[in-house]
Amino acid sequence: MKDVAFWALNTAAIRGASYADARIADDRSRALSTKNGKVGSASDAESFGIGVRVIANGAWGYAASDDLSRAAVEATAARAVDIAKASAKVKQHDIQLAPEKAVTAEWATPVQIDPFATSVEQNIELLLKIDSELRSVSGVTLAETNMNFRREEQWFASSEGASIHQTKYTTGAGYAAYAFAGNEIQKRSYPSSYGGQWQNKGYELVHELKLVENARRVGEEAVALLKADQGPEGVFDIILEGSQLGLQIHESVGHPIELDRALGMEANFAGTSFLTLDKLRTLRYGSELVNVVADARQEHGPGLGTFGFDEEGVPAQCTPIITNGLFTGYLSSRETAHTIGLNRSGGTLRAEGWNRLPIIRMTNVSILPGEKPLTCEQLIADTDDGIYMETNRSWSIDDKRYNFQFGCELGWEIKHGKRTRMLKNPSYSGITTEFWNSMDAICSRDEWVLWGIPHCGKGQPQQVMGTGHGAAPSRFRNIKVGSAYKGT
Amino acid sequence: MLDQDKADDIFQRIKKFSTADETEVLFYGGKSALTRFANNTIHQNVAEENYVVSVRTAFGGRTARATTNKFDDESLKRAVQSSESLAKVQHPDPDLLPMPRPEQAGEAAVGGGRSTSLPSRHFEETAAITPEPRAEGVRKIVGIAERHKLTTAGVFASGESFEGIFNSRGLSRWHTQTSAEVSVTMLAADSSGWQKASSPDVTKVDPVRLAEIAATKAVESAHPREIPAGKYTVILEPAAALDIVGFMFWDYSGVAILDQRSFLTGRIGSKLFGENVTIWDDVTHPLQAGTPFDGEGVSRERVGLVENGVVKRVVYARATAERMRRSEYQDKVGPIAATGHGFPLPNEMGEVPLNIVFAPVNDAQTVEQMIASTERGVLVTRLWYIREVEPFEKMLTGMTRDGTFLIENGRVQGGVRNFRFNESLIHMLSNVESMSIPMRAAGEESFEMVVPAMKVRDFNFTEVTKF
Hints:
heterodimer, A: alpha+beta, PmbA/TldD fold, 2 domains, eight-stranded mixed beta sheet, five-stranded mixed barrel, 24 strands, 20% helix, globular, B: alpha+beta, Double Stranded RNA Binding Domain, six-stranded antiparallel beta sheet, 35% strand
């Protein structure tokens, strides 16, 4: 692959590029699913190609091709330079990249069991066993299960001399039970919504999730929701379960801290950010208990945002985002770092595949667990009058990331420290900074899980990316609840 | 680009590698390019060429798929073997039908009529666009931004693509088309405006006109005031109407009814919406785009989904139609027949109508006429981050964005801070007071449709954001 990259970099240089990098990627995936006792889908996919990114005349160009013959690679690099020269006709300033030491490196996701080496037959049997458990519950009208694997092998080389070979594995698995009766559809998912739990791990993740063991309970909860009381409307203390808090972090911290958004580069589609540059190290984002990091390093855990190097050759890093409630950092790239006074990228440039331009993406944006021992049950016992909410059902936030509204699959009324009754259709809403400043408790390390969100969309053409979010159950005071159903 | 003859050669090679009872091959891909700008600068500018072959094999009720973008014999053989090994370990599915023969793929006659001839959707001028004319279009947009002292962001995209399908029972279908898209956001200090258009023909997309409208919206919505949340008469411009109504069409699917996850379960034949709402799915409509056959190669039929507010029927893939005929719903769902709307097999979702066309009303009004007849209301340019809150009443939430205006006494009175809505689509489409002539619209939350602007009473805004 070094030869292929050399063809691209050499052609780019000859055609006038002042900088070039080439990414060759070999991507393999498998998707298995079942629905109501039958296989829903069984598919394998592979995609192989090269993307060449250049700066010429001070502007960017990017071209990608599935043809790795020498002639095609050189034509692709030449096309990237032509595109850059066209870009240069509408520019305000020349692109400047923060310096980065060029390295030669190898990195791979630590994997105990190669998921592609596992038996398809046994995997389908496992999914059908879960399906059977779900549908053994009277009232479950639809059962869906899924199991997904991905392997991305990538070779990166730059005109500055970098040469990086990286292989990442992702595994995901989960299921959902639906109950339909009268004029109502209720749903319960496990371990989380939107395909379950996803991590950069091998098949060992499937073993860890206790999928079959939880299926009957999940089915029973879906049916029980049909008869549960409607979640109330008003102002309440709420406790969010970890996966829901993970999505809350994703939407109301992870996206607004993307420096490209803050700089207006995503204004047409994903939007901008309320975190204008003047707010760095001045904004009280949350309460003293709120400590958030963007950490792509393996020591943070096997998150979907864990890697050795980002897609412009910058090593994985940990950036403090919120420190004791103070806003302290953005997600940055070599192009954008200088705008916040950094002399090095934070290493967050990522691409969906070889045919997509790398852009700033979340890595693992995680809230750190509380330092004092605190279990979820202890947190509930410490709450006099509130609502516990679990597993996301709907999510929406404005294009500057101020106003959000989340719906959850299941709620529990808390009275005098005890769960008293199940609530259906719980929802809450608020303004980002007001919400994070209302956090007064977070559970400790034993309750902290690195959740995976596999389908985050951003960019034009749109790219889908996996992100990681470590979270533990947390309590928020005086939150507006139930306005999703107000006036309907 | 790959053409039908070359694809047929590849299909013949694949057939030789296959040991399955039946073999189907999909081809798709092409060339695409997108010039992206922000802060009055082209900051991203990309081009891609990619061709994909996807093999489905079937062994007596068992089927699976494998996909690759490599066309050498070794890769094709590996795709066939992957597909076969995934299929062979399954239990037979009695609902899986044999692959369609050519006459079965073109003869799925249904109420509402057969597909008529398809307008050309491939334009040489669009296929030939290079980065320079896209940059020139952006330069004009930036010029308009600078003239209004605004900052602009957006895209100018173009492409040429194909979809083809072959199967071992003799089916062979091919479709090529071009595409062009321009989207423009104009930003002022405390306001913004937006426009977007797409077409297979780049000459139908006018960057200058879009930029001028977006700039006017940004200027006229400056210094937005906050008005309280509540129920308002709203005028949804076509892109806003498209993005919200688009969420319901996933439920116009036979599989969604059989799964009991559709809000139409038990409601087909009922009057769910206002008398003025009539909706077709019609791939042949001159303002539509897309492939005239489905994931099995079956011709897409023109299907009447809603007539004067009454939900008439849903769409079907071949196997779904067979299942529905045997189901408890057979007498409750209107006409049952394969309509050519299936996804490639195997899949869990079944089918969906993707070429939505709202029928014109006799008393169509322009947006300006709607404004003039509104005592107090809100004009909405664009909706954003729409998600389903409750599936059976089709309750959706989302935000307004990039040009939200207060209307009083028949006139636009200036910009207002953006709202969050929580609104039932059933409620909304029952409260449409007037519509414009339907037009091809493009948004970000749903697929392109032919849809009118809508004036809707009692639209439920529940919160106001900070800008």
